[in-house]
Amino acid sequence: MTRGSNPGPWQSPEMTRRLARRHAAEKRFRLFGMGAIGLSLAFLALLLVIMLKNGLGGLDWSFLSGSDSTDPSLAGVWGATKGSFLTMVVTLALSFPMGVLAAIYLEEFAPRNRWVDWIEVSINNLAAVPSIIFGLLGLAVFINTFHLPRSSPVVGGLTLALMTMPVIVISGRNAIKAVPPSIRDAALAIGASRVQTVFHHVLPLALPGILTGTIIGMARALGETAPLLMIGMRAFVASPPQGFTDPSSVLPMQIFLWSDEIDRAFVVNTSAAIIVLLVFLLAMNGLAIYLRNKFEVRW
Amino acid sequence: MIGFIVLAAVLGLGLVGWFSARTRARLLYTGRGSLHSTPGYHGWHMALWIVIPALLAFATWSSIEPGLIETSVMSDPAAAALPAGDMERESILAEAHVIAANPGTAAFNPLSAQLAEPMRAAQSRFDLIGAALVVLFAFAGGGYGFTRIRAGFPARTRVERGVMLLLLAASLMAILTTFGIIASLVFEAGMFFRDVSPLDFLTGLHWAPANAVGDDLSSNFGAVPLFWGTIYIGAIIAMLVAIPLGLMSAIYLTQYASPRLRRWLKPALEILAGVPTVVYGYFAALTVAPLIRDFAAAMGAENPSTESALAAGLVMGVMIIPFVSSMADDSIAAVPQAMRDGSLAMGATKSETIKRVLLPAALPGIVAGVMLAISRAIGETMIVVMAAGAAARLSLNPFESMTTVTYQIVQLLTGDQEFNSPKTLSAFALGLVLFIVTLILNIIALRVVKRFREAYD
Fold first, then answer.
1. What domains can you pick out in chain B, each with its CATH number?
2. Which residues of B touch A22 (CB under 8 A)?
3. In this predicted complex, what is the ipTM?
4. Cα separation of A53 and A271, whole Å?
5. I need a surface site. Which of A150, A236, B48, B248 has the fewest CB within 10 A?
6. How confident is the model at residue B214 (pLDDT cuts 50, 70, 90)?
7. SS3 content of chain B, % helix, strand, coil (to 5)
């Protein structure tokens, strides 16, 4: 009430005080914002610095080319890296085609009915289901029902593919949605069928966006540990896997296993493995950003 | 191994079929309008007819072959000596399978070494039969496809119909996955609830699955301490970190930072979301937890534990910051510019506009974002596995170790357990609770976000 009823002259000492208080509050608020973002980034920096400090000493050729071992000086990450690679191959081979095809269907062909609503709801929910639930699914279905080999890249890849597919569908739909309707109209107008329109014109234009989403989904799958823990990929594997059905470990699982070791020397190994994993993730995300900047068309 | 050869052969046949059908269709071309579909579509039609029946045959055969092999091995005289018990029998057969696949492996059980030879014979016999069957299907399909190549044949329409079926099948995969999750969780949890009453499980205060033997199961499967630990770590401590920091970061990024600064800060913040959780877990266990223990000791706590709810919650909160921040970012950006302009025009400072106008207007979106963040935090596994501890206790002290639903799921399923004991089944019951809670949070949040977007559109 007092503010409105008697404003007084702008130069009055009371008004100056009030203005100063408000400007101070403004400055404080701004500093809070800077502080919040600074604190978050400082935490990230601290994490990276500690891992680099602990791990850089352990990064050498024998570490990169060795496999797991009970002796920390002999243990290396090659076995786990190969396991990760095989797992990612399975994941990509399944989730990419499935995800892209589902995105095309939902965005271009799906009729508006209850079935399609169910598909959409379940995709949106799957994208937010905790990853450990996918592990339980993998354990119950792939291992206990289909008796696929436990702890193998096939089962790991299948489980992660189910988890990655919704991510690819969602980013794929956004990429397809971003292609302007005029492209479709032009193709249809010169006599292309709807399938031809989509596969010859819309899909190539949407592909950079889809690839970006795929790489981000794959990066997430590469760093995932919990679902693989459920399907038993925590075995001690002293030689690199030779195929998709051999028992194997993956990089994040190797980190987890080493972090449990009591021997202090494993701290170096764990941190070095974390550096290797982060380098892979950084490379993948860098590639995604590069693709986006290079090929993305603003209509 | 033979499977790969068969698949490669089928794909090779498909390729051959594609080329031959296309060539044949080209010969039919006599001028404009003489063919219904371009030769390429005839090629695809043929290739689909070769590959799809063959793949279906392959899938069917792969699923029935193990049964056939087992029946044939059982008819071997050596199999008469197999023990009757299911467990031993299966393990001997599994070992025989391994020896059959890798000759020269030392046998743990002499019986499995005896069985390896008949098993290998049966395996290769049925592999050959299967391969022949698959190739037969490929040729039959290919033969049918080849007779269809005529000038008036609508190959394109047929191929496109096939493509549509493929698209539909790919989208049904999502429903199948959801259904698979629900079915497997409900089935296993149902077996658990036959032994332990759901009421005891949901309201019991004592969690000690290790002691759960004999008849007195229900009293050791009270999951309330786990629910409390999950809520305390994921929904309270983590959110106390993530909400203020995430919200203020979003406000700074959208309202104060210059576009250039924003271009650098936003991706930098998103790196936090890209760091794998196992790395956070290790960081929490290696660095944060000892710091907190020392702090607790300095505050006068006796025997502070290395694993604490606070360490796990703090690190989890940091992990969630970018998530909260981007949700808040979206909802603040969705507030119409006119509301902001109106407030500034009335003489309010920027911070007053944010606090009195933007935040209230964006509140539904922010609340939905926080709900999604909580659903992610309570489902988070690796951080709590590595930093929160195993003690199931109801406590308010953040320096004590606490356990969560996800931690117990990992704990119950990674030991050497026979599959159908109540102990392992209880993990699925916990999983079911986790799934239902996150599902409810997600559905409400997505609905709020949708309605909120519509309100300002």
1. 2-153 (no CATH), 210-456 (1.10.3720.10)
2. 349, 352
3. 0.90
4. 8
5. A236
6. low
7. 80, 0, 20
